[in-house]
Amino acid sequence: MPSERTPLRAAVVGTGGIVSGSHLPALREQSGRVRLVGAVDVDEGRLADFLGEAGDGVSGYPGLTEMLAAEEPDLVLIGTPPAFHAEQAVASLRAGAWVLCEKPLCLSLAEYDTIAEAEGDGTGGPYASVVFQHRYGSGALHARELLRAGELGTPLVAHCQTTWHRDAGYYSVPWRGRWETEGGGPTMGHGIHQMDLLLHLLGEWSEIRAMAGRLVHDVESEDVSTALVRFESGAMATVVNSVLSPDEVSRIRIDCTDATVELTHLYGYGNDDWAYTPAPHAREQQERTSHWHTPAADVPSSHKAQLDGFLDAMEKGERPPGSGRDARRTLEFLAALYKSAFTGAPVHQGEIAAQDPFYRAMHGNHPDWAPKEQR
After folding, report:
1. Is domain 8-133+304-324 annotated with CATH 3.40.50.720?
2. 284-323 pLDDT tens trace
3. For a Cys staple, 210 with which of 214, 274, 339, 340, CB 3.0–4.6 Å?
4. Domain 135-301+330-348, CATH among 3.30.360.10, 3.40.190.10, 3.40.50.10190, 2.30.30.100
5. Are residues 71 and 60 in contact, defined by beta-carbon separation less than 8 angstroms?
């Protein structure tokens, strides 16, 4: 267990919309287990606004180092732009704090392995986990249990879709659309949630073939990507990520031998967003199919749901979900998608080793995609 203090002491790094709108309410709902004591932001006005919203007992700091020394938090929640995630996660871990960081946890597999080196020795933490809140709704938990138990039959065909819309104003924020500061386009910054959920449901992937393009936006990274994926189970999937789509939707569909399970939502789901369709031969097997539908308890996908599980792990001194090899698999999947899209060749799991240019950066120093100063 990281600390005998109850409640645990938490701090946030970055006080923008994702922290004030998602992390702060989640912390409030867990107030019996964790207490916010510190907040870090380089923007004095934004920090002051956040402190006013957070209430008494929360101290503000202009830098992470000062906050870690003064507050000695048990938990650090990171909501800064992606380029800062790795450095801030490593500093927090080395100070003895557990880390829950907004996606992406870092910008490359190389950065991920640096974070892993800064974690505890495997017995009690501290550990770093990435925010993949879609894993934690009751609908996803139920679907994963059914799939893992073989209740829906053998997974065969899947579809993973994140088709959103972002205009030029969205990319006027200086760090967006640039490899060095965002790490990638909708593959890295938007579709990562649905792709992580797909992997969470279907398990290990084995091969990916992909394409990417800049069809509308004048950015360094892509604004659309597509992929064909083969899983170790033999199942095959299509993946689409876009910020060009007026009709916005997030969707996962998995066709199994005995049923189709489908999730349709946008930025978060409840139980009603999941649907189960029995195959013709299974429609009369009511004893078997009656429990396929989502459970009565409805836990929406949310930061609160993930924080709940994260605090459970902290209190037990166990590695939390969405960390370690589990989180690295999703990042490796993204790196493989980029490598396949940019080289035109299929990529297999485990192929991107330390000497591979796609290990160091998602653009892989490809002449058509890397920033000009790095080509």
Report:
1. yes
2. 887 778 888 878 899 999 999 999 999 999 999 999 988 9
3. 340
4. 3.30.360.10
5. no
